[in-house]
Every structure is written in structure tokens, then in C-alpha cells.
Amino acid sequence: MDFRLICAVLLPLLAFTRAEQVKFADCGSVEGKVSQVDISPCPTQPCELHKGKSYTVNVTFSSDVDSQTSKALVHGVIAGVPVPYPIPNEDGCKSGIQCPIQKQKSYSYINELPVKAEYPSIKLVVEWELRDDSSKDLFCIKFPVQIVS
After folding, report:
1. I need a surface site. Which of 31, 62, 118, 146 has the fewest CB within 10 A?
2. CA-closest candidate to residue 37, choices 20, 55, 14
3. What are the beta bridge partners of residue 61?
4. Which backbone phi and psi does 109 adopt, to 5 degrees?
5. What number of H helices and E strands is found in the chain?
6. In tens digits, what is the pLDDT along the chain, a chain of 149 residues?
7. Distance, CA of 27 to CA of 50 (rounded, Å)
8. Residue 116 burial (10 A CB sphere; 0-12, 13-18, 19+)
9. In the chain, what are the helix, strand and coil shares in percent, each to the nearest 5?
10. What are phi and psi of 48, to 5 degrees?
């Protein structure tokens, strides 16, 4: 069996084992619609992200367009200023989505949100976009978090 197929089947199941549905705001989804956002682990809201840990983010969305590719962009918004937030893999097609993305289908995008030990303890808003091959947002979501020791 193909390793990518196994990952595509098992990753969504693993993400749901301890995932908590979080409140989110849409920030300009143009080419799709988000139905649910889960972060694991996140027992309280806003999510407390502990330094040195990594968190699984699962976004369930439907696409309004066909797209061969998808690329994630993540920012931490601090005092209204978006600061680029690096994630391990910005390729959505390697993050739980089997590409090409098809119109009117539902997808579970899964990625990691690593929190480095050197990050300051701070409250911020995470802005997460997934763009199609014409650089329009399949989704754009915002959710509050707090980085703690």
C-alpha cells in the first residue's frame, strides 16, 4: 500500500482522537467555505500553546473551484501587525489533501503548528490561509491563542 495513501487515511483519524473544535473567524475565504477547525490538544479556549510543543490543526473545508495545487500561509497577528509564522510544510497537497482539489468536494487539511521555546509568552491571533493555484484563498481563518511556558 502506498505510504501517502496510508497517511491520507490515518492522519485525519489521529487528528480527531484528541482534537477540540475551536471558535474561528473567517478572514476572507474566497474560493471555499470552512465548516470546522480542530486543534489538538486544546482543552480550553483560547488555546494555550506551550513553548517547545507542537499542535495539530485540522481545517475541514469545501472548495468552490478546481485547483492543481495549494499553499499555506500562516501569520501571528500581534497588535494588529501580521508576522510570518513558519510551519513545517506549506504544501497543502502534502497536508491531508489529495490533489488535484475538486470543486464541490470536502477536504480535511491537516498541519502542525510548532511553538518554539524562544517564543515570548503572549496572546495573539493566528491567521491561516490556504491558497489555490491562482493565489486566491480556499480558506482564510483566524483564531486566538496564548503562548505559555
Report:
1. 118
2. 20
3. 34, 107
4. -90, 125
5. 1, 10
6. 443 433 344 444 444 445 689 999 999 999 999 999 999 999 999 999 999 999 999 999 999 999 999 999 999 999 999 999 999 999 999 999 999 999 999 999 999 999 999 999 999 999 999 999 999 999 999 999 999 99
7. 25
8. exposed
9. 10, 50, 40
10. -95, 115
Q: Per-residue DSSP letters for 11-73?
A: HHHHHHHS-EE---EES--SSEEEEEEEEES--SSSEEEETT-EEEEEEEEEESS-BS--EEE
Q: How many residues does the chain have?
A: 149
Q: Which amino acid is at 136?
A: K
Contacts for 95-102: CB closer than 8 Å, 24+ residues apart: 96/8, 96/11, 96/12, 96/58, 97/70, 98/8, 99/67, 99/68, 99/69, 99/70, 100/66, 100/67, 100/68, 101/63, 101/65, 101/66, 101/67, 101/68, 101/70, 101/132, 101/138, 102/63, 102/66
Does the global pTM surpass 0.90?
Answer: no
Q: Which residues pair with 122 in a beta bridge?
A: 147
Alpha carbon distance 57, 112 (integer Å): 6
Distance CA 66, CA 104 (A): 9
